[in-house]
């Protein structure tokens, strides 16, 4: 009888730990559905390093994630859809910049707020974008002596 009780307690602890890991994975990867905020769109020349789930940051603080990333077959530009957290207002002259956390760090999209008093509505298009800068291309220009 005592062995059965121990097995039940250990089994319950293992199940609780597994559910905790599952919750952590879902919350960390953004698979929990959508956020109840707004969506913004942006087109990039290069979205290298950006994928679905990539952080959207404003002043270094995560305010959303990339929810969709596709290639436009006509313009050959990367079309991204951002899910912005509820309660975050973004000026309509803001810029979206693909940035990295350093040489070995991850990639994120930085929103650089503009000075407009008008805010983006749900589904708005960010006009001012800057794509990813390839570190390899920069090094090749530097080694080759070309001007940037």
Automatic annotation (TrEMBL):
Name of the gene: mlaD
Coiled-coil zones: none
Protein's name in the database: Putative phospholipid ABC transporter-binding protein MlaD
Entry-linked NCBIfam families: OM_asym_MlaD
Cross-referenced Pfam families: MlaD
GO biological process: phospholipid transport
InterPro entries xref list: ABC_MlaD, Mce/MlaD, MlaD_Phospholipid_Transporter
Cross-referenced PANTHER family: INTERMEMBRANE PHOSPHOLIPID TRANSPORT SYSTEM BINDING PROTEIN MLAD, INTERMEMBRANE PHOSPHOLIPID TRANSPORT SYSTEM BINDING PROTEIN MLAD-RELATED
Organism per entry: Octadecabacter temperatus
Regions that span the bilayer: none
């Amino acid at each position: 009888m005592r062995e059965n009780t121990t097995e039940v307690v250990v089994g319950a602890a293992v199940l609780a730990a597994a559910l905790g890991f599952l919750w952590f994975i879902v919350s960390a990867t953004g698979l929990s559905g959508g956020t109840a905020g707004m969506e913004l769109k942006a087109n990039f020349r290069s979205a290298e390093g950006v994928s679905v789930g990539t952080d959207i940051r404003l002043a270094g603080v995560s305010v959303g994630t990339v929810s969709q990333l596709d290639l436009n077959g006509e313009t050959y530009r990367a079309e991204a859809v951002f899910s912005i957290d509820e309660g975050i207002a973004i000026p309509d002259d803001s810029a979206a910049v693909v940035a990295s956390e350093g040489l070995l760090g991850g990639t994120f999209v930085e929103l650089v707020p503009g000075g407009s008093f008008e805010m983006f509505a749900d589904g708005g298009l960010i006009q001012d974008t800057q794509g990813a800068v390839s570190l390899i291309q920069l090094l090749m220009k530097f080694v080759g002596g070309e001007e940037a």
